[in-house]
Amino acid sequence: MSPECVWLMLVFLLILAAGAHGNPVCTARSNMGKEVLVGSDLTVSCFFNKICSKIIFRDGEQIKHDQSPDLNVVSVNVKNLTKLSIFTCKCNKDPEPCGIDIAPGYPPDIPQNLTCIRKTESGNVTCTWKIGRDTKVPTTCQLWVLGGPPQFYRSVMNSSRFCFATFPIIGSMSQLTLRLNVSNGLGSNASGPHNFILSNIVKPSRPNISHVECLSRRCHLHTDNHSMNLVEVKYRVKHVIWESLQINAGRSLNILSLRPYTKYEFQIRRKINHTVGLWSEWSQAKEAETQEEAPDKPLDVWYIQEPKSETCFRIFWKKLSKSEAKGKIRRYNISVQTQKKMNSTTVAPNITSRIICCHLCSVSVSATNSKGQSPAKFIELRSPGFVLGVVSRILSNESIALFWPMLAITGKRTEYVVHWYPVGAKEKLQWIRVVDTTANITDLQPKKCYQCAVTALRSSGPVMASIEGISTQQSVPEQGPGLELILKESESLQVKWSKIPQSKIRGCLRKYSIYLQDNSKNIKHYSVENTKKQYTIGGLSPGQCYKLWVTAWTVAGEGPRGFYLSVCTPTDYEKLISQVILGGGLVLLIGLMLLCICQLSSFRKRCFRCCQCLQPTVIPDPANSKCAKEYAIEQFDYHQCDSSMSEEPDIVEVEEVPYPSSVICTYTKSFSQESSSSGGTQITRSTDITEDYICTHGAISGGEEEEEDEEDRLLDEFEFLPCSSRLLELLVIPGERLTLDLVKTNCCEYLDGT
After folding, report:
1. Residue at 628 is within a domain
2. Is residue 627 within a helix (H) or strand (E), and if so which, with residue range?
3. Are 406 and 488 within one domain?
4. CATH code for the domain in which residue 310 is found
5. Does 711 fall in a domain?
6. In a domain, 2, yes or no
7. What average pLDDT does range 591-595 have in this prediction?
8. Dihedral-angle region of residue 443 (phi above 0 means left; psi in -120 to 50 means alpha; beta otherwise)
9. Phi/psi at 188 (nearest 5 deg)?
10. Mean pLDDT across the chain, nearest whole number?
11. Among 453, 392, 390, 391, which residue's Cα sits nearest to residue 420?
């Protein structure tokens, strides 16, 4: 076979294959077409090209079908079609299906809301119009321009059911005549003719605000270079309702009557004049802030007296609103005026209270921003008198009404101040001023306890009526008090407990209950005021064990108990043992302290000196001897006395000898009968000689400047002396004889002088 024949056969086979593949297995049709009215009944048929097992699907699900006399045709009847449906037919073993999409819809309504604008006087015209209801099927829009050679413009309705067309102005047309038409597979509608004067549909381009200059109460808007005959300005505080005004202006605009220190948004649009043309689009919003001014409104100031004090008060003031402050508050000025002087101070802008202690004084508070100071608010700090009579009534979960009797002076209206704060949080004080005898307190938190009071501001002095603990809604406490400490005695227990957090009380605390359970499961109950945090339980048995717990109450009832403790009272024997142990420990502690003190060298020396003074020393007294009684001391001769009389002591003559100035004191040398020179005195200048000396400690120049160790050394050398040198200095009289009668005395009387 020639190559040409081979190529011809291949081409023929390809054509046969393509033809076989190009013929569909079946064809699907609807007796009403692909677009039908919503709710229509119709029949869908499938025509197969071969004999096979046939299947029909609707939206992917197999449905039953009717077999027609023609074996190659199957049909299905559809009732009340309301949504887009996809019908598919196929042979059981053939992957190639056929199908049809059927869309229910509506014919278009008459076109309406036709608007046309011309961007510039020489620009194109854009027209838009709307179809009444959603047709649910593709719809075509047509616009015809009449008044000359007809012009036809076509568009497709968008998802918002709007149609539009843009076309140029041909020649010197001053008026437009338009006709509209809309159509789809279910029908069509038309409207017109519509007439427009071109000058009336001219719309200026969107303006632009280049920048804004502001003073405290006005702003100057600078715009782009486009000429404007009529301008509309709208402005607002951010996120507030717009305000607007129309101005005949050129390139700049002034906006007056603004508020100081306020951020504004500005937008403008323009028009040719009042009667011609359309308004342009609004410009992009431009923000600007006006400048500050000095505040001109005084602060609202109030005070409460500090507990347990007659001269200390806590003053509060309310922050000015942004419009009242007219700027950023930088500080608060506080002045306290008394009868004698005035003190002034400043506090930071985040502080709104201050404690002031004074008697018969007045306080002024003012706020300061960058431009100046607000008028001062004066208030006199006076302790109020107290009366009764405030009644409360719950209005809602957030408000309470208060009523009180007339507290004003007869015939005159009095201002009342109603203040309140959460229990335990005076820093959150709030107040209002009224001239009536009723007030509504709002913005309260449910299940929270508040303290309230009403104060009448009378010229004779303030009078206060308070109400303890109000709450819009209450429930039992969420937890019980925790036991902190128990002091045990043999017949009593002192119980202390902690406060419950205010958020856990869930109302106003009324009282506490203490429960005491013995070993026999008998429970005793004790009620305690809500202001107390301890209680003593008496009448108990020594050596008995108990279980103890505490609960809290509100108006709604009793809360859960806190954790319980097991405690036993001590027996009398245990009490005695504990006292003995305590006393022994105290004695041991004192002994340790004395032992530590005795380790100090200076303390030991003083104790040694004192002990020497207390030691008894037997010294013979020559004045009482037999020889002294028979002979006068001046004529005494040793040889006249009988040496055999052992009870008589030796007579000693003492003479004071001045020592050189370099020595601390003078010494007197004593001579006895054994001495080789009994008839005179001898002066020594050296402390190395072994003779006995009595130190008189005379005042020698420079003696006070000797160091303490030298003084101790000298004392050690003459430690036979029964007392200090200060005593001898007082006893020895220069030029006289020293006898033991003169020396005999109680040295301890002079210990304080050592």
Report:
1. yes
2. helix 626-630
3. no
4. 2.60.40.10
5. yes
6. no
7. 82
8. left
9. -150, 165
10. 77
11. 453
